[in-house]
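User: Run a structure prediction on this.
Assistant: Running it now.
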Amino acid sequence: MSQDKSDFEKKIAKVNAARQRQFDKQKEKRASAEFQKAQQEKQQAFQTKSQQRAFEKMKERLADPTYLEEKQQKQRDAQIKSFEKQRGRQQIKEASLEYKIKKTNQVKTLQDKARKKAIDQKSVISINLKKSKAVKSKGMKGRAPTTLEKKLGNKIGDIGCICCLNKKWYTSDMAEQESIKFVSLHHVDGRTKPWAHAKVLPLCAYHHDTPAPSHAPEGLTPIHRGNKREWIKLNGTEGELLKQVYEMIDEDRPWLGDEIVCEPKTKGIRLG
């Protein structure tokens, strides 16, 4: 009896050992890169096949007019059901006493705000009416020139730079170049006073507001952004040049004896 038991235990041990070897072998196989790659390929193939079947099935359904009609009807029924459910909740809410009180308070609040806003606007309007109108500055542009001022300005501009002419720097080539004389009208007495746009001098850029280049003749300096006293000493006073300009265009000075108030004092300077 003991012999039979020993043989049975040996058989069991042998079977267990074989099973363990098979398990270890299977474990080693699953751990290998080739096995994992093969498993992934199988899974991908299965997923692709499943997706293809689902696609074919859906394609077949969509080709069936009955299926499409049933689907659309289901969507409509769901929308109607949702709308009726929402409307029912809203009706119950509106029928409640709390909702009615809340809406009444909201309307009252809006009315109070509207009344307050109207009162505030009325107050602002009354305050603005009491304020004096601010004077708008005309800036560098000044007022618009009159018809006569435009006419005189055009004639003065055709002279060319009065300073260059006086110094014999304004050549015939410059005068004939495309019939354009490159000048700016320098305002002698502001831009807003009476006859302000008639009291102008035709000046080139270097006599007006642009620093002279390095190769320029000595004595070329702008009246703006430079030394105005030096400019007057080199070119004469603005009043003298203004008189000369009107003599050249053969026109009377329309302000007739008005003083040119913007000229600087030249006391102690001998004008050449």
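The domain at 147-249 is CATH 3.30.40.190 (Herpes Virus-1).
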